[in-house]
Design goal:
alpha/beta; globular; TIM Barrel; 219 residues; binds erythose-4-phosphate
Length: 219
């Protein structure tokens, strides 16, 4: 049901949206700290909103329920239709999710490593549940059964949350996530570019164009 870009770089996002294949943006504090170390968060997110379409996830960075709700309402006010509040998963995160769900604010429950966590987030009304492929694999586990069992449980229980798979480190991670039942992969710009690249495609196009240039022309 879509492909998101995992980036906070408005220039890169604008460039890649021109391909016509992206339908949303995910950011997180680590990506923003890395890509926009001294930028103002509100400015960065407003720039991202201006160059993209669809949902833009912004993650909460505070840690108490009251602070998180206040932070979430601030982000929500930037664009009530398109901002999705990324809620780090925990007991407090579930309480915050419940409050935001009651206010009909879109949410993306993040940092999920297991089906049971995603199931709780989906029961809590999350718009998206984000499974972290690379980080699950870092612990030595196969992420495919995590994704496929999450999809099976959500479908069987009639839960509406969509599964985002992020933390993609390789092109193969994207392919495997899609095959396992992920609704929306979120990929970094380098991985998106790898999805286009294939040496045999490049070689074939060059062969066709070369033959066209060298065709005998009538005088
Ligand atoms: C997804 O929404 C996250 O922003 C992201 O994919 C996390 O990836 P990481 O494991 O590379 O930090």
């Amino acid at each position: 049901m879509g492909l998101f870009i995992d980036s906070s770089d408005p220039k890169e996002i604008k460039d890649l949206y021109a391909w016509g294949v992206l339908s949303g943006v995910t950011t997180n504090p680590l990506i923003i700290a890395r890509e926009q170390p001294s930028a103002d968060l509100s400015e960065v997110i407003h720039e991202i909103l201006a160059v993209s379409t669809g949902d833009v996830s912004v993650e909460l960075t505070t840690e108490t329920e009251a602070e998180m709700i206040k932070e979430a309402l601030g982000y929500h006010s930037w664009d009530t239709q398109r901002i999705v509040i990324k809620v780090p998963f925990s007991e407090t995160g579930l309480r915050v999710l419940h409050q935001l769900t009651k206010r009909q604010i879109k949410t993306n429950v993040t940092c999920l490593m297991a089906m049971n966590q995603a199931y709780l987030a989906a029961l809590g009304g999350a718009t998206y549940v984000s499974l972290f492929s690379g980080r699950v694999q870092d612990m030595g586990y196969d992420v495919r059964p995590v994704i496929s069992s999450t999809r099976a449980v959500l479908d069987r229980e009639g839960l509406q949350s969509k599964i985002i798979v992020g933390s993609m480190r390789h092109l193969m991670d994207v392919n495997e996530a899609l095959e396992a039942g992920c609704h929306v992969p979120t990929v970094t710009p380098p991985i998106l570019r790898k999805m286009v690249w294939n040496p045999r495609t490049i070689e074939t196009i060059a062969e066709f164009n070369d033959a066209w240039r060298k065709r005998p022309t009538k005088r």
